[in-house]
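Changelog-adjacent note: as of this version, every example in the card shows the full chain rather than a window. The one below runs 278 residues end to end.
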Amino acid sequence: MQIFKEKKHLIKYLKTTTKDKSIGFVATMGSLHSGHLSLISTSKSMCCITVCSIFVNPTQFNNSNDYKNYPKDFNNDILLLKNVDCDILYIPQVKDIYEEKIESKKYNLGKIAKNLEGKYRPGHFDGVATVVDKLFDIVNPNIAFFGEKDLQQLQVVKKLVSITNRKIDIVGVKTVRESNGLAKSSRNKLLSKDHIKEASIIFKCLEYCKFNMHLNIKKLKMYIEDQFLQNQKVQLEYIEFVELNTFDKIKEWGGDKTNAVCIAVYINNVRLIDNIIL
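Full-length structure tokens:
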């Protein structure tokens, strides 16, 4: 595996070694787990060259403590990537991505970036779009792979590619879960075994929604909210039903559009999100 810390060297290497070869790209913030590795494996199966980046992007955090406390384990990340035969790893410093000012660019992402995570984490998606746009400039991939666990982010990236007229295919990869259904997340490393056990309520509630769509949305939301009121260790921030492609909230079933149910919770001051496509 080739490792690059500066974009100028990565760009030069890609230009000289990847001619007529398809490039798959997986952007991460490190602290890798099997969910990330499934993205790498999917890229390996579809592309000639797979590039992974590890960069904890400061502009997508609206909470400075969240940024400082984000788990990091670069040595283990490198070992995991070598074990799955990742071809190229890019680990830049902040100054290599944000050359002068560390700030987000404003994108016309529309309504898709304003609900849910856009509401509860102001500026988050501008930060995501900014760093992804910069990474796309550097790697220039044919296909980029993003996890469905961050479903709204996946849709935002698709919108970004559309408004910037990039010829990049965006592929969503299914969520990888713990044995109790908890979605794999780097933030899970901040939880104790007891917290992991308690967090099983998240997926149980999502599954309840999926298997009880004969009920109306209001009743489903009331049921989920009641489950969390009875649980003193996991705090519900939101439970929302949305139309998948626009992330518009829906209040009742109808039409032939694909919907999803999305959830955000806090457990021991660690914020977790998850979803199920219905």
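Structural remarks: The chain has a mean pLDDT of 96.
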